[in-house]
């Protein structure tokens, strides 16, 4: 399986490091205790608690492996070195010229996206269109469904 490099902000890297530490430490101990308790119930062939705990153990280990793989192939992008252009690690305020609404978006790596927190990936249509542009510039974004939006960059800050 080919591995690809992932761009992360320093905050995104730290979040993954913290999650891995929790999964390998506290969460792994909780799962081990759940397995031990379920074993005490007796017959393992019809023990739903045991099966559930073993499934959680497998999910936890899979996520640990995924995080290790991401961290091994990640490049941490320091936003201070990127100048005044939109890049990963930018907090961008844009004016939607079509609706007149102002949006503030954080440009982050693919693994850090969170639409509820307005964190968009550098690979999303809007994120990709904004990359490399400066305050005052206008960009046009075509969404996957063919709709176009025009945004004017009002402000750029570093996360």
UniProtKB/TrEMBL annotation:
Instruction: Please list the GO biological process terms of this entry.
Output: DNA-templated transcription elongation; regulation of DNA-templated transcription elongation
Q: Does the keyword Transcription apply?
A: yes
Q: Name one GO molecular function term.
A: DNA binding
Sequence ranges assigned to domain Transcription elongation factor GreA/GreB C-terminal in this UniProt record: 84-157
InterPro entries for the chain: GreA/GreB_C_sf, TF_GreA/GreB_CS, Tscrpt_elong_fac_GreA, Tscrpt_elong_fac_GreA/B, Tscrpt_elong_fac_GreA/B_C, Tscrpt_elong_fac_GreA/B_fam, Tscrpt_elong_fac_GreA/B_N, Tscrpt_elong_fac_GreA/B_N_sf
The cross-references to Pfam families, in alphabetical order and at most eight, read: GreA_GreB (PF01272), GreA_GreB_N (PF03449)
Q: Name the UniProt key words of this record, in alphabetical order.
A: DNA-binding, Elongation factor, Protein biosynthesis, Transcription, Transcription regulation
Q: Where is the Transcription elongation factor GreA/GreB N-terminal domain?
A: 7-74
| Protein family (similarity comment) | Belongs to the GreA/GreB family.
Q: What does this protein do?
A: Necessary for efficient RNA polymerase transcription elongation past template-encoded arresting sites. The arresting sites in DNA have the property of trapping a certain fraction of elongating RNA polymerases that pass through, resulting in locked ternary complexes. Cleavage of the nascent transcript by cleavage factors such as GreA or GreB allows the resumption of elongation from the new 3'terminus. GreA releases sequences of 2 to 3 nucleotides.
**HAMAP family the record matches:** GreA_GreB
NCBIfam families registered for this protein in UniProt = greA, PRK00226.1-4
| Protein's recorded name | Transcription elongation factor GreA
User: Taxonomic classification, please?
Assistant: Bacteria, Bacillati, Actinomycetota, Coriobacteriia, Coriobacteriales
Gene from which this protein is expressed? greA
């Amino acid at each position: 399986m080919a591995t690809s490099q992932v761009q992360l902000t320093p905050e995104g890297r730290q979040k993954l490091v913290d999650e891995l530490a929790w999964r390998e430490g506290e969460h792994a101990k909780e799962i081990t205790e759940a397995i031990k308790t379920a074993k005490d119930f007796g017959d393992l062939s019809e023990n739903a608690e045991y099966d559930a705990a073993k499934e959680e153990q497998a999910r936890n280990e899979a996520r640990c492996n995924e995080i290790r793989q991401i961290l091994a192939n990640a490049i941490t992008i320091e936003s201070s070195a990127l100048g005044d252009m939109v890049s990963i690690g930018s907090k961008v305020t844009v004016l939607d010229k079509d609706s007149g609404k102002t949006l503030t978006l954080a440009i982050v790596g693919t693994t850090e996206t969170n639409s509820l927190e307005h964190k968009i990936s550098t690979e999303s249509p809007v994120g990709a269109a904004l990359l490399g542009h400066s305050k005052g510039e206008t960009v046009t974004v075509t969404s996957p469904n063919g709709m176009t939006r025009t945004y004017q960059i009002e402000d750029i800050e570093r996360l």
